[in-house]
Specification:
32% of the residues lie in helices and 23% in strands. The relative contact order is 0.16. It has 9 helices and 12 strands. With 298 residues, it is an alpha/beta fold.
């Protein structure tokens, strides 16, 4: 989970945690509340590990994005993760459950609390005055703290945070552009002239990632987080991109899952997706911490 609302780099970490568990031989299920989706029942299986069974309009964009990215992993959504987890285990058997936005979901007993902490979070206030979900004292119950958005602090400030939080449970998390792909998943070279669009919490980070990938950015349009795209908006983006001399439209993996059902028809220009991965300064130590907490696969 995280301490603040949106933009702390949590979802890529959920993906990496799940990959580590899957590679170690565990059966893994991601349990999400399905924010932004229209599902209002108790539990919905988004992926059975073999195919994606729900769209972003129904299940929310992040669960569908994770389901597409993680074959062999069950993804399910519902308001009460204890109910969702029981439904998953009744169908698929015992699992290691990874909660997406789970730090504040105290109904469940947990083996490891991993919190993504923006390096500026501790200077903020709880809602409604600020962006924090709860008081920073809540970090006392975290087993692992992942410091994100490192570019927003100096080395001295990061070291001070590590000292304050405890170096033994603190890790630094960066980001790297892992490459461009088509919406069908085929890897492609960075576009020579790309027009960016996104509806995410921190679109400027996406723009930096795109520039770091080797693409030349000729324009951009950013919407609010979890934006639902309309057909006419895609047509306008395509028009603006052509006027700017773009050879392709570029977006995020989270936005791409919202285009399938929310914007039928699609643009005339090629639509490309930038994949981004988290980088941990000491992933071996993080992996050991994670696997020690869950034990050996059954």
């Amino acid at each position: 989970g995280n301490l603040s609302v949106g933009g702390s780099g949590k979802t890529p970490v959920v993906r990496r945690v799940t990959e580590i568990l899957r590679e170690a031989g565990h059966r893994v299920a991601i349990l999400s509340r399905g924010y932004g989706g229209r599902f209002r029942g108790d539990a919905l299986v988004v992926s059975d590990g073999k195919e994606v069974l729900a769209d972003a309009d129904t299940a929310g964009d992040e669960p569908v994005m994770l389901a597409r990215a993680l074959p062999g992993v069950v993804v399910a959504v519902g308001p009460r993760r204890d109910v969702v987890g029981r439904a998953v285990e009744s169908r698929f058997g015992p699992c290691v459950h990874v909660l997406d936005v789970g730090f504040q979901h105290l109904r469940l007993e947990r083996d490891l609390d991993v919190v993504c902490l923006d390096v500026q979070d501790l200077g903020d206030l709880p809602m409604p005055a600020g962006r924090l979900r709860e008081d920073p004292k809540a970090l006392e119950r975290a087993d692992v703290v992942l410091l994100t958005r490192l570019e927003a602090a100096t080395e001295e400030e990061i070291e001070a945070l590590e000292g304050r939080l405890g170096a033994e449970r603190t890790f630094r998390v960066g980001r790297r552009a892992a490459g461009w792909r088509t919406v069908e998943g085929e890897a492609v070279e960075p576009p020579e002239q790309v027009y960016l669009f996104a509806g995410i919490a921190r679109p400027q980070r996406f723009e930096r990632d795109a520039a770091a990938s080797g693409a030349t950015i000729v324009g951009r349009t950013f919407f609010g987080d979890h934006h639902r795209y309309r057909r006419e908006e895609i047509a306008l983006l395509d028009r603006d991109a052509r006027a700017a001399g773009a050879s392709a439209l570029g977006t995020t993996a989270k936005d791409a899952v919202r285009l399938g059902s929310g914007a039928p028809g699609g643009p005339d220009l090629p639509l490309l997706v930038l994949e981004v991965e988290p980088t941990l300064d000491d992933e071996d130590r993080f992996r050991k911490t994670l696997l020690d907490a869950v034990g050996n696969p059954a």
